[in-house]
Design a protein that fits this description.
Blueprint (H helix, E strand, L loop, with lengths): L8 H30 L7 H13 L4 H7 L8 H15 L6 H10 L8 H9 L8 H29 L5 H18 L8 H18 L11 H7 L7 E6 L5 H14 L5 E5 L4 H13 L3 H6 L4 H14 L4 E4 L6 H14 L4 E5 L13 H19 L3 E6 L3 H4 L15 H5 L2 E6 L8 H7 L2 E9 L5 E8 L4 E4 L17
Parallel strand pairs: 1-5, 1-6, 2-3, 2-4, 4-5
Antiparallel strand pairs: 6-7, 7-8, 8-9
């Protein structure tokens, strides 16, 4: 009888079929296990909920601490949630928390009988609890609420994964948003004494003096800018805006390069407009000082190629990370930044540019979309305690103004950008607007960085030198302008 070889097509099909059957059985087993888990009672501790309410009724002063930990929706039992809501109402109105006042509130709302009436109120009074332990009871209730939120969020994720209504990437993004939403909503309010604040301030001053830094934040590589702003400060949202072809991407790359290469600080550069390879070419030409146009044309010399290879070896050691996905929501940007912060550390986020960030709700009016994005950028800076440098477009009104110099009112699509930003600065080059060649020659290579808002410092102008061939800015005092007259001046 002929035997079938192990490597025959029939054998492979049989093996594949067996694996598929096993996979289906495993899937059903997991689904059954998941269903059994979901049918279990949600985490709760009704006794702790009663102890919280009893503590508040026995010693109303503890409600100040309880209110920082709990919200009505954290209670599993609806009657307890209802009672807590009315206790909070009494507390917020300045009334003293009292059993009689609570009963009156419940009666007025028509909820006295639904919570169990006088019997349940009497039952609360007999709960074995100590008012001094109110915070401990409140933390137990809060922890159970977090577990329930996780289970409900995970159930939603499971349902979406089985029956997706969008792309898998969108499902994953929404899943991450739900989980991080739980974390954000459960952060407790805390206050810090001025003693601790000043101690941290003095420690930071000592650290600055030890490092002999001229500024307290991240140095940008532009001395005059660092002197005026103190560098890029933690938790600040910095907006760098300009009309197209002014060089805002180049300036952002110059800053990111300096922070990553010279400061050895991890930088996340999110490019929604240019690909990673384009940014790589630009960065190489900028550092190696090789003409970018000749690099694209393939007409560079062997000596210039050696410069590029040498620069590539240096740049490759820098902690610079590029995300060039063409469409990103704030949820995805935040998730990427958090991951990088956890795994490799993070000192600066650069986003190019704000108006290309996808809104979470495309049906909102455009101004509202941009306002929400600006608020979340500021929130991300505060959460991760890093500066966020975000590029932005200006509207055409700049070109209608007398001197073509941008103002805060020229920020495109939303005044909320100006409100949420800690620093707003504009790139301006006169040569861009000069139509006469002679006039253009007089301002060729000159650029201004106009700081028009600084929440914690002065405003003013910083003069820079623009080198078109290398798509690079330099401090104006670094080299005399005459040394760069030979370089091109075409618009960027």
């Amino acid at each position: 009888m002929a035997t079938i070889e192990d490597n025959s097509p029939f054998s492979r099909r049989s093996s594949d079929s067996r694996r598929a059957s096993e996979s289906r059985r495993e899937g059903r087993r997991h689904a059954g296990g998941s269903q059994a888990i979901l049918e279990r009672q949600l985490p709760q501790n009704v006794q702790a909920e009663k102890a919280v309410l009893c503590s508040a009724l026995l010693l109303p002063e503890v409600f100040d601490e309880i209110a920082l930990i709990l919200r009505p929706e954290d209670f599993y039992d609806e009657a307890n949630a209802c009672i807590f809501q009315h206790l909070m109402s009494l507390h917020n109105s300045g009334s003293r928390i009292d059993v009689l006042l609570l009963v009156e509130k419940l009666r007025a709302a028509g909820e006295f009988e639904s919570i169990g009436g006088a019997v349940y109120i009497h039952e609360l009074g007999e709960v074995e609890s100590t008012a001094a332990h109110a915070e401990y009871y409140a933390h137990i209730v809060a922890e159970k609420a977090i577990l329930r939120q996780l289970i409900l969020a995970s159930t939603d994720v499971l349902r979406e994964a089985y029956d997706p209504t969008g792309e898998p990437r969108q499902v994953l993004s929404r899943a991450e948003e739900k989980i991080f939403g739980i974390l954000e909503s459960n952060r407790q309010g805390e206050v810090t004494s001025i003693h601790d604040v000043l101690q941290e301030s003095l420690d930071r001053i000592d650290a600055r003096m030890d490092d002999q830094h001229a500024c307290g934040g991240l140095e940008t590589g532009f001395e005059d800018l660092d002197q005026l702003t103190g560098g890029l400060q933690k938790s600040e949202l910095v907006i760098l805006a300009a009309r197209p072809s002014m060089g805002k991407t180049a300036l952002a790359m110059n800053i990111a390069e300096h922070v990553a290469m010279h400061g050895r600080v991890p930088v996340l550069f999110i490019s929604l407009e240019m690909s990673a390879i384009e940014l790589g070419d630009r960065l190489l030409c900028s550092v190696a000082e090789v003409n970018g146009n000749r690099l694209r044309n393939g007409t560079i010399t062997q000596e210039e190629r050696k410069q590029l290879v040498k620069s590539a070896a240096t740049i490759s050691l820098a902690p610079l990370y590029i995300d060039d996905s063409p469409s990103r929501t704030m949820t995805e940007i935040s998730a990427n930044a958090r991951r990088l912060k956890r795994h490799d550390g993070l000192g600066l986020i650069v986003i190019d540019y704000l108006q290309l960030i996808e809104p979470n709700n495309s049906r909102d009016p455009r101004q509202e979309q941009v306002a929400k994005i600006a608020r979340r950028l500021k929130g991300l800076a505060r959460e991760l305690k890093v500066p966020v440098l975000c590029l932005a477009q200006l509207n055409r009104q700049v070109e209608a103004s007398r001197d073509n110099k941008p103002q805060l009112s020229h920020l495109r699509e939303s005044g909320a950008i100006e409100q949420d930003a800690d620093v707003v600065m504009f790139v301006h080059r006169d040569e861009y607007y000069q139509t006469n060649e002679e006039d253009r020659d007089q301002v060729r290579g000159e650029a201004d960085l106009l700081i028009r808002k600084q929440r914690n410092g002065p405003t003013g102008d910083v003069k820079l030198t623009w080198i078109h061939d290398f798509t690079r800015f330099r401090s104006y005092s670094q080299k005399p302008y005459e040394e760069f007259e030979a370089y091109g001046s075409a618009d960027f």
